[in-house]
Design brief:
Layout: E1 51-52, E2 78-81, H1 106-110, E3 115-117, E4 124-127, E5 130-135, E6 141-146, H2 160-170, H3 177-182, E7 186-193, E8 196-201, H4 208-213, E9 247-254, E10 257-262, E11 282-286, H5 291-299, E12 305-307, H6 311-316, H7 321-324, E13 328-334, E14 340-345, H8 355-363, H9 367-373, E15 380-381, H10 399-405, H11 432-445, E16 449-451, E17 454-456, E18 464-469, H12 475-487, E19 491-496, H13 499-507, E20 513-518, H14 527-532, H15 551-561, H16 566-583, E21 586-588, E22 590-591, E23 594-600, E24 603-604, H17 615-622, E25 624-625
Parallel strand pairs: 2-11, 18-19, 18-20
Antiparallel strand pairs: 1-4, 3-4, 5-6, 6-8, 7-8, 9-10, 10-11, 12-23, 13-23, 14-20, 14-21, 15-22, 16-17, 24-25
């Protein structure tokens, strides 16, 4: 779904990555041969080049490349990209800070992690900076060996000390709290020798070793001044990073343009986890302030590709001479698990603390009309926090789910013990008017009654809701919803602000409602704590934007994180899904079943699409310029102009 700022929506799904890029927070893996199938605690361990959560990694130790990569793709040409995410400008070359807008995709292009995640498995990692890992028998630690060939862009070897520095910096107050939260299960990092580092964990959680493998690595020399002193990390904003990744910054024209060039000395280019990846010599980004201009620039040939999140644009605007003459194409690509997109409510506001009020607000959202009239039927209704995955709840609770829910009876909605909640619809014989009558009754039960032209509480205070967003296209979604709220007597208005102020208000929980996307995960893990855990609700900059504080939710998160088998994990996440959905923390919206990508016909892509991927990074990481046709002996040489 997932580097910074949260995911929000533009017309439909906005799938950008938040500050913890790729926060597909993968839950662990035990070393192959070290863990018995599905989680029995082993009595011995051995070092292994790859780790997988349950069972064995898909790829053997001698694999040559991922199935979704084309190792024979040409490694030349350039990629001209437009807005990578919602940010319309950038002012920082440090993607790890809470303040500032980072340069587009800088973390992906310039910072490698200890290990590389596979995009076509539930949760597996393969060698990158680390060439093997040993998971302790009690799951309380994992030891990584650094590939002696690993190098920073300045030629310095990457050592265990650099890994320790990266970890301690990202978990310090100088870095964004999102990273501190992501790596919170790690208690300490200990340098064993030059190329060996051990991570000790606070708890024996199955996801801990993979979380350690997700650690981005950067050099302690980044931020070093000519006088030999290093700037504090939170002041390193405009100094180019010393890269551990595949690209370097070639040019920065202004706060709207940046160009990266592939490092010709990138040491990992031929590793199996990198073969067929990063095929463009040069990648440029140009940021536009509005989507209309961005699309018109693409249609004119000023950009090579665009990922489209607007159903209307996709259905009506991807036409013109360059589509007719074959220069431009449009493609729909399948995707795996779907994000949870919804209009979240800030429970820190007293009016949202009653679940009956929150339930009433979900009844006012007319998805069916919007999908039919605005979105050309391209979307599907979101009904789960784990949509389109085996971890979402359906039907009646299973015996294993009930075993987790029964001890919580009385502290969770009673509906969790019945069929999974069906989202309200307006398909005949149902209607929006009927749904609003249900909403009116729920609000009355919660003490809100219509009088003197407004919905008021017992003190006569009217219910007033500000719906905040920073995307002009979102008014098409929000205005009809506001009209429905108005029929209930709720005084709703939309506040459209620029992306920088939006991010600041979001980080400090200064909003009533806003559309938000929880990016999808292939397998649930530590992100559950960041998104829904009680402790995160009061942490500025955390991902618990609704402000959920529930001992029941915390208990089910713990069950998920301590699950020893895939079956146990599925039971825990499904039980958690029932509680979250029936607590009405947000108004579920919709999702697109795949990626909509416009591109120049000169671009190629691998024949196999990954199981789950972030759309922009799939293009940037695995697409390529097609090789020019080979000239025959009789071909006429091209004339220079």
């Amino acid at each position: 779904m997932m580097n910074s700022g949260p995911l929000r929506a533009h017309d439909a799904v906005r799938c950008l990555f938040v500050a913890v890029r790729r926060a597909m927070s993968i839950a662990l893996a035990a070393a192959p041969g070290a863990l018995a199938a599905f989680g029995a605690i082993p009595v011995a361990v051995q070092a292994s080049p790859s780790i997988a959560q349950y069972d064995q990694p898909k790829y053997p130790a001698d694999f040559t490349h991922f199935d979704y990569a084309n190792p024979d793709a040409p490694a030349n040409g350039t990629m001209s990209f437009e807005n990578y995410n919602e940010l319309q400008t950038y002012d920082s070359l440090n993607p790890f800070l809470v303040r500032g807008a980072p340069a587009p995709d800088i973390q992906n292009l310039m910072f490698d992690t200890l290990m590389q995640r596979s995009w076509d498995e539930l949760a597996s990692e393969y060698p990158l900076i680390a060439d093997d890992v040993e998971v302790a028998a009690d799951l309380n630690s994992a030891t990584f060996h650094i590939n002696p060939a690993a190098r920073f862009s300045n030629g310095d070897p990457i050592t265990a000390a650099d890994v320790k520095y990266s970890f301690e910096t990202l978990t310090s107050p100088q870095a964004s709290p999102l990273f501190n939260a992501q790596f919170s299960v790690i208690k300490s990092a200990t340098v064993i020798d030059k190329n060996t580092i051990r991570f000790d964990f606070k708890r024996a959680e199955r996801d801990a070793p993979l979380i350690a493998g997700d650690l981005p690595i950067f050099s302690p020399k980044w931020g070093m001044q000519p006088n030999g002193k290093r700037l504090p990390f939170d002041q390193i904003a405009t100094m180019p990073p010393i890269s551990s990744g595949a690209y370097l910054i070639e040019e920065r024209k202004n706060d709207k343009q940046i160009a990266y060039r592939r490092n010709p000395d990138y040491w990992a280019a031929n590793l199996p986890s990198r073969r067929g990846m990063f095929r463009f010599e040069r990648i440029t980004f140009k940021l536009y302030r509005d989507h209309y201009t961005q699309l018109e620039a693409f249609k004119a040939g000023d950009a090579d590709t665009i990922v489209e999140y607007s159903a209307t644009q996709w259905a009506r605007k991807y036409v013109g001479k360059n589509f007719d003459n074959g220069m431009l194409k449009k493609g729909d690509f399948a995707d795996g698990p779907a994000q949870m997109q919804g209009m979240l409510m800030n429970l820190r506001k007293p009016m949202f603390q009653d679940p009956r009020v929150r339930h009433a607000l979900t009844m006012a959202f007319d998805y069916d009309w919007m999908n039919r009239m605005m979105f050309y039927g391209q979307y599907r209704r979101t009904s789960s926090y784990f949509e389109a995955s085996p971890f979402g709840a359906t039907g009646m609770p299973s015996p294993k789910e009930l075993a987790l829910l029964e001890p919580l009876r009385g502290s969770v909605p009673p509906e969790v013990f019945g069929p999974m909640l069906k989202q309200p619809d307006t398909i005949a014989p149902n209607s929006l008017r009927g749904n609003l009558r249900v909403a009116r009754d729920l609000l009355a039960q919660a003490g809100w009654h219509y009088r003197d032209g407004a919905l008021r509480d017992a003190n006569g205070t009217p219910m007033t809701i500000e719906i905040m967003d920073d995307q002009p296209g979102m008014d098409r979604l929000i205005l009809p919803y506001m009209q429905a709220l108005g029929m209930l007597g709720i005084q709703a208005h939309m506040r459209e602000i620029d992306s920088a102020l939006y991010q600041k208000r979001l980080d400090n929980f200064e909003y009533d409602m806003t559309t938000f996307i929880y990016p999808p995960v292939t397998i649930p893990g530590a992100e559950l704590t960041r998104r829904f855990g009680s402790a995160a609700a009061s942490e500025v900059g955390s991902e618990n934007y609704p402000g959920i504080r529930s001992k029941a939710v915390d208990s089910l998160i713990h069950s998920a994180l301590s699950a020893n088998t895939l079956d146990d994990l599925e039971a825990a996440t499904r039980a958690l899904d029932r509680v979250l959905i029936n607590s009405f923390y947000l108004v579920p919206e919709y999702y697109a079943p795949g990626a909509r990508i416009g591109y120049k016909s000169t671009l190629g892509y691998p024949s196999k699409v990954p199981m789950s991927y972030q759309y922009e990074d799939w293009v940037i990481d695995y697409w390529y310029d097609k090789a020019p046709p080979a000239q025959t002996a009789s071909s006429t040489p091209a004339t220079a102009h």
